[in-house]
Design a protein that fits this description.
five-stranded mixed sheet, 294 residues, 10 strands, elongated, 54% helix, alpha/beta, three-stranded antiparallel sheet
Length: 294
């Protein structure tokens, strides 16, 4: 019974430490300590049963497994320095001039080590001269996911969301558009949240849709024209309001989050949630009815 307990205990400590870390009950340093204790137990078992070849080999195997896990998880220590992600204002812009479709982009600032949020916001706003619109606390779930994505990038190319957006936009719009092509070749933009705006801009440029109303638009798309969830919805709604837009199109998957923003921030802007490109086109046409008389 004691043998079995000693063999199971190192893995129990690892799993307990992992779950405690993942749900923010301990930090990365404490998680690594859990693994080191497990390594110590495996070494203890190795010497305790050194005269038993099978048990000796078993504890040696446990030691190697935990050593590999320790190497795999130790990268988490580097992510301990990140405490907050600050989201600041960026000026909306049109992909196609005079299309009325405005892309909403944000700047995400990673803030290492500083835990005093008020001081951090004040310092960043003073140094960048940009208003901080939203703050995301860096949880252990975010750290663990980021660590895994970093390690996976060593064995396979990391997913580039802007490249994915480019492929999806091109799949949905086979026609050539110089303005859209120039936008899709930009290297100073990350993420895929401009996909819906790019498609609407191209439809307007090609004459398939008429628009005389300035509209803020955010939303990723897939190859079938479905509008997908995006991040930083609070900041983008506030940017749209501050920039004077009366309407903003967002993904339906962000609607619940947008409702909370509407309640908490009370922005003076109409929020329209859409599920597909066709849905968005219908809303653009509807918004233009009072202007065009259609």
């Amino acid at each position: 019974m004691r043998r079995l307990f000693l063999m199971i205990l190192p893995f129990f400590l690892y799993i307990t430490g992992l779950l405690s870390y993942y749900f923010d009950n301990i930090n990365g340093y404490q998680f690594i300590i859990f693994i080191m204790v497990g390594l110590g137990i495996s070494i203890f078992g190795f010497f305790l049963y050194r005269n038993n070849k099978k048990l000796k080999a078993a504890f040696l195997g446990i030691f190697y497994i935990l050593a590999l896990l320790a190497m795999f998880e130790s990268r988490l220590i580097e992510y301990e320095k990140y405490t907050y992600f600050l989201v600041s204002y960026n000026e909306p812009f049109e992909i196609v001039e005079d299309s009325g479709i405005n892309v909403l982009a944000v700047e995400v600032i990673e803030a290492p080590y500083i835990t005093d949020l008020d001081y951090l916001i004040h310092s960043v706003e003073f140094s960048t001269n940009k208003e901080i619109l939203d703050v995301e606390v860096v949880t252990n779930k975010i750290r663990y996911r980021s660590k895994n994505e970093e390690l996976l990038s060593y064995v396979r190319p990391a997913e580039k969301h802007f490249e994915t957006m480019k492929e999806n936009v091109n799949a949905y719009l086979p026609e050539n558009s110089s303005a859209i092509n120039r936008f899709l070749e930009r290297e100073d933009i990350e993420g895929d949240s401009a996909g819906l705006a790019a498609v609407l801009s191209a439809l307007i440029e090609n004459g398939d849709v008429n628009n005389d109303v300035p509209i803020a638009v955010t939303g990723a798309i897939d190859t079938k024209g479905n509008v997908k969830e995006i991040g930083s919805i609070k900041a983008k709604i506030l940017i749209a309001e501050q920039s004077g837009f009366s309407h903003i199109l967002i993904p339906m998957e962000n609607e619940e989050e947008a409702k909370k923003v509407k309640i908490n921030e009370q922005p003076d802007i109409k929020i329209i949630a859409v599920t597909s490109i066709n849905d968005a086109v219908d809303y653009v046409k509807k918004l233009n009815e009072p202007v065009t008389g259609k």
